[in-house]
Design a protein that fits this description.
This protein is mostly helical. Among the domains are: 43 residues, no CATH class; 44 residues, no CATH class. 28% of the residues lie in helices and 0% in strands. The protein has eight helices and no strands.
């Protein structure tokens, strides 16, 4: 069987556009690129780290993985992660010596391991692990970190090197706009477009 993905078969963008009556800003199709491009893309796929905090905790009696080593068995609540087993490394046994009796301070020190005063009152936090990673990633990505929460304000896991909380955003629309940019023409144009429920093809036909 001949290989259809040979260099002779590859189409260029000009050939595709010639055959279209109405054109759209087309992304580069896989078949238009040299075959080596797919390999290069796979090797440069970015890595992400996500830290999720559960305020009310979990049932440690059923959550913890009790068997150490490569042949560990996922606990009942974690069984759904079985298909990702080759890509995850469960870590158990972490403990903060000053965490006992300081339930309301957990989110503040989870990623910083800062010392919590047993007498209560204010304490000076330190840089969180996610921000240390963000410093390394900053030169290679548009956003070095995103702080998200279901409640606005200082309910955050991220802390700067000066021990200052980095406010978390709780509005999905604001996060989307930050990531993908505002609609050209402003909110009114966006509302009209959503109201018409037009597709990309509809917009091309209008032009």
């Amino acid at each position: 069987m001949s290989n259809v993905l040979t260099q002779k078969w590859l189409l260029n963008r000009r050939h595709v556009l010639r055959g279209l009556g109405a054109t759209i800003a087309l992304p580069l199709l896989d078949c238009m690129s040299p075959l080596r491009a797919a390999t290069e893309t796979a090797t440069t796929k970015p890595r992400r780290s996500v830290f999720v905090y559960i305020p009310n905790g979990v049932n440690v009696l059923t959550w913890q993985i009790t068997q150490a080593g490569r042949d560990y068995e996922l606990s009942t609540p974690l069984k759904s992660l079985e298909k990702h087993r080759a890509n995850i490394t469960p870590i158990s046994g972490l403990h903060h010596p000053n965490g006992i009796g300081q339930a309301h301070e957990c989110q503040k020190v989870w990623l910083t391991a800062a010392k919590v005063s047993q007498e209560g009152g204010a304490f000076r936090n330190t840089v969180s692990a996610d921000q240390l990673m963000a410093e390394v990633a900053a030169p290679h990505t548009r956003f070095s970190s995103l702080e998200l929460s279901i409640s606005r304000g200082t309910t955050t896991l991220a802390w700067s090197r000066d021990g200052v909380p980095l406010p978390a955003e709780d509005n999905p629309k604001t996060v989307f706009t930050r990531l993908f940019g505002a609609e050209p023409g402003g909110v009114d144009v966006q509302r009209r477009r959503l109201g018409r429920r037009h597709s990309v093809l509809d917009l091309v036909l209008e032009d």
